[in-house]
């Protein structure tokens, strides 16, 4: 075989080796390793004289081939239990097959690439951005039904709550408290959290001085979220931190 | 080319261009004279509107453009609205109230008062144009200070933040003292 | 809404969006359940292609997008004088094929199959938006896992990765048998 092959024309050692097998019409399951190794080395040596670029991978394969060749030269162990002895070429063959599977399919990819290049798409209509912008600046819509009185009350409520938290003695006297936390509210809170960070430790949900009722309500909300397949939880062991992650396939988004 | 092929090319050209295309260019694409091309486009445009299709062809000063049919407008709009639409939740309301009364205020201070992480709520409010950055606090890390926007005041009919209704002083003081103790 | 009104809305939505629109969003726009919506879109897409229209509807991983019909390409090209898209090199195609079939896959696994360093090819594919990071492998060094993108589907005209041509499984089995015989 004349050495007119240019190493640069090959995608790599597998590509070159594969070419040699095809060119010599070799049965891939019974590679004449001596012949192929000689041809391969001849091409690689010739190329080496011209360029040292991208050579290392070709040389690695050359070494691999030489190793197989030498193992083939060794007398076969004739042990009784040598049934499991593996052909030194086996690994190379399965790699070549694997490579061939993907190489074969690139032809079809190329055809589809060509066909699909004749299909054109268009940009989003510029007027859409107006819809989106409009949505962001429409305070009227967002605050629909909210009066300033609501804000005033919300602030008072927040402050009152804070005050109660600090005054532990007084708050501990109360036997019946207004239900400040609802499961619904905590579900949407957990949903929000899981959007911001994909992984949360259970205690990160809470701040210092958190109330017991809030913990209970939040825990119930968490159970609800698991049931609704919004989050998944995991725990390394008993009493370890519970880790909350977004349920795979969950459809919650920024909305 | 047969008529339906000519129509297909016109359709494809108008679709992909995304803007008005001159009669001359379309005539060129289908290798027909302008008068014939014009007749074909008009027939196609009529067909679209007779069939009450979702896309129409309009003529704009001798050029042609593909656009959505007016009767579909509300549906399109609903998609872009509904994906973002969400009312003011309790959590956002409280955060907004704290920012309104304590501005300029940092996220840390908001969290201190509400007892929960404020990132999400503050971002949402900024996104909605109710709250904005008003400066930096002269403290380690120079945290961002937030305040309400002009739009916020305008919406509730206040000329400035000084006009906000006064709070029950007792509550305010107690809470401020409390905040100091904890700091 | 009557069927042709539903079709009109779908048409308008797909026309205006300029990107793939999810089934859920379209279903929302026409207030129908997903299965019905899917049936209507498919019927509309079939109508477009049966009538050899200039615009088509393609499915991309459960989303839908409007595009021009391939048979109109040459005419569009003639007026826009656009140069032909540069195809992928053999090296990029091989790398992409491996990623497409073995996703999620690390660079190391690609190199294992191709026998050459995959840095350049993978970077190029990421640059072209055909491939993206999809996570990290739970192994030492936590190597990046790569997968194909929606643009990959669009680029080759696949509706989903399930549509990829079958790999020749036979060769592999033969090789294993062959190896056994030789043992």
Characterise the protein shown here.
The complex is a heterotrimer, with one copy of chain A (255 residues) and two copies of chain B (183 residues). Chain A has a three-stranded antiparallel β-sheet, covered by helices on one side. Chain A has helices at residues 13-23, 33-50, 56-73, 90-116, 127-137, 139-142, 148-166, 168-173, 183-196, 212-227, and strands at residues 199-201, 231-235, 242-246. Chain A has ten helices and three strands. By secondary structure, chain A is mainly alpha-helical. In chain A, strand 2 (231-235) and strand 3 (242-246) form a beta hairpin. Chain A is elongated and about 90 Å long. With 183 residues, chain B is α+β, with helices and mostly antiparallel strands. Helices cover 55% and strands 15% of the residues of chain B. Chain B has helices spanning 3-17, 23-29, 34-50, 73-82, 90-102, 107-114, 119-127, 150-156, 169-182, and strands at residues 21-22, 55-60, 63-68, 105-106, 131-136, 144-148. The relative contact order of chain B is 0.07. Residues 177-183 of chain B have low confidence and may be disordered. The interface between B and C is medium-sized, with 32 and 30 residues.
